[in-house]
Amino acid sequence: MKPLAIVTGVGPGTGSSLVRKLAAEGYRVAMIARDADRLAGLAQEIEDAVAVPTDVSDASAFVAVLEDLVARFGAPKVVVHNAVGGAFGTFLDVEPAVLEQNFQTNVMALFHMARTLTPKMIEAGGGSLIVTGNTSALRGRANFAGFAPTKAAQRILAEAIAREVGPKGVHVAYLVIDAVIDVPWTRERFKDAPDDFFIAPDDIAAEVFHLTSQPKSAWTFLSEVRPYRETW
């Protein structure tokens, strides 16, 4: 039986690239996202991709799905939390309920995922839990009040989990993506930007896979990727 990988936030960019990369590397990939039609299309396209339409912010439904996947396919070897909730505006403009919803997606979903899966991964001999983040995890900026606090909390939660389960064989890493991801809506927004302004979803997926395959003597926790021309 192929090892199981679980990916949340399977959208048209990074999520889909993650699924393709992991499937190409020999994994059965459980795809979790809200868009059932997109997942069904990917399941038709990619052998051993399993569509699991779920809202990760619905804790009870999310945990039930994770437990079902383990019952069907065994403990995952790779888990990637790529689902993201964001809102932009000043702290006076963003409604408190929106920030709370983003916290559920970005932080609490990771919390439930780790609680549900890492004990089983430890029992099975280890694995990797990778979280995709961005520069909002490292700093707060104007108009990011509905987003940055949740990504910063997500990074700190991932670090706390890493320190607990790392010595038990589960590699937890946080990947900061300091870039505009190359998807149709960002191309439309940045119409005049050259190709090398964007980061390619396939290249993000390759870095995630690299993190999952690092030797135990040289595990990374915090990793950053950006286009070579990015000012930072």
SSE arrangement:
Layout: E1 4-8, H1 14-24, E2 28-33, H2 36-45, E3 49-53, H3 59-73, E4 78-81, H4 96-123, E5 127-134, H5 148-165, E6 170-177, E7 180-181, H6 184-189, E8 198-199, H7 201-212, E9 222-225
The percentage helix is 40-55%
At the fourth level of CATH, the homologous superfamily is NAD(P)-binding Rossmann-like Domain
What is the overall shape? globular
Number of strands: 9
Q: CATH architecture, please?
A: 3-Layer(aba) Sandwich
Annotation field: number of helices: 7
The SS-based structural class is alpha/beta
What's the helix-strand series? Answer: EHEHEHEHEHEEHEHE
- Segments where pLDDT lies below 50 for 5+ residues? none
Rounded average pLDDT:
96
Task: Give the N-to-C terminal Cα separation.
Answer: 44 Å
Radius of gyration in whole Å, from Cα?
Answer: 17 Å
Q: What is the CATH third-level topology name? A: Rossmann fold
Main sheet, how many strands, which sense, barrel? 7 strands, parallel
Q: Give the number of domains.
A: 1
- Portion of residues in beta strands equals 15-25%
CATH class: Alpha Beta
Strand arrangement across the biggest beta sheet: 3-2-1-4-5-6-9
Plain-language structure description:
This protein is α/β, with parallel strands linked by helices and 232 residues long. The chain has a single domain (4-225), classed as 3-Layer(aba) Sandwich (Rossmann fold). 43% of the residues lie in helices and 19% in strands. The chain is built from seven helices and nine strands, in the order βαβαβαβαβαββαβαβ. The protein has helices at 14-24, 36-45, 59-73, 96-123, 148-165, 184-189, 201-212, and strands at 4-8, 28-33, 49-53, 78-81, 127-134, 170-177, 180-181, 198-199, 222-225. A seven-stranded parallel sheet has the order 3-2-1-4-5-6-9, sandwiched between helices. A two-stranded parallel sheet has the order 7-8. Helix 3 packs parallel to helix 4 (96-123) and helix 4 runs parallel beside helix 5. The protein is globular.
